[in-house]
Design goal:
- It contains five helices and five strands, in the order βαβαβαβαβα.
- The chain is α/β, with parallel strands linked by helices.
- It has a single domain, classed as SPOUT methyltransferase, trefoil knot domain (Alpha/beta knot, 3-Layer(aba) Sandwich), CATH 3.40.1280.
- The chain is globular, with a radius of gyration of 15 Å.
Length: 157
């Protein structure tokens, strides 16, 4: 199953860049993964949070294909443990999904239009993380899920 991660903004800290590269390289034997950083135009001004949320969501919508299975990584989404997330991925593979797209929004979340397009919303914690930190957390959990599915020792190491 091909996996894509769409995210707002660039990584700005070396430790996060190195962490993301580490988990992406470890996942190569589990799945194909691509990461796209979606960025608003520099200096673009917004009247309010809603207009920024809409502009960012439009960038996501422009990257999505009608056949993509879209999962918003969102504080309002369904929470699950690492094992349940692994089961969730297995169910998507069993359902014959060829491409799953995970989306990490900006600081104001997603627009209603993007929520309507999404197939699922998941939350990884009741805590709030910035989008840069969460990118690393998500990739670690994606790697962990694949290692659980392969019954490898990482989850218990």
């Amino acid at each position: 199953m091909k996996t894509t991660l769409l995210t707002c903004g660039k990584l700005s800290h070396t430790y996060l860049i190195e962490g993301v590269e580490f988990y992406v390289s470890k996942m190569k034997h589990y799945c194909s993964i691509e990461i796209y950083e979606l960025n608003l135009k520099k200096g673009q001004a917004f009247e309010d949070e809603k207009s920024q949320r809409q502009a960012e969501s439009d960038l996501f919508l422009a990257k999505l294909k009608p056949t993509d299975f879209v999962v918003l990584l969102d504080e309002k989404g369904k929470q699950m443990s690492s094992v349940l997330f692994a089961d969730y991925l297995q169910k998507q593979m069993n359902a014959g999904r060829s491409h799953i797209v995970f989306c990490i929004g900006g600081s104001f979340g997603f627009s209603e239009k993007l929520y309507a397009r999404a197939d699922q919303s998941l939350s990884f914690s009741q805590l709030t993380f910035n989008h840069q930190m969460f990118r690393l957390i998500f990739l670690e959990q994606l790697y962990r899920a694949h290692s659980i599915l392969k019954n490898e020792p990482y989850h218990h190491g």
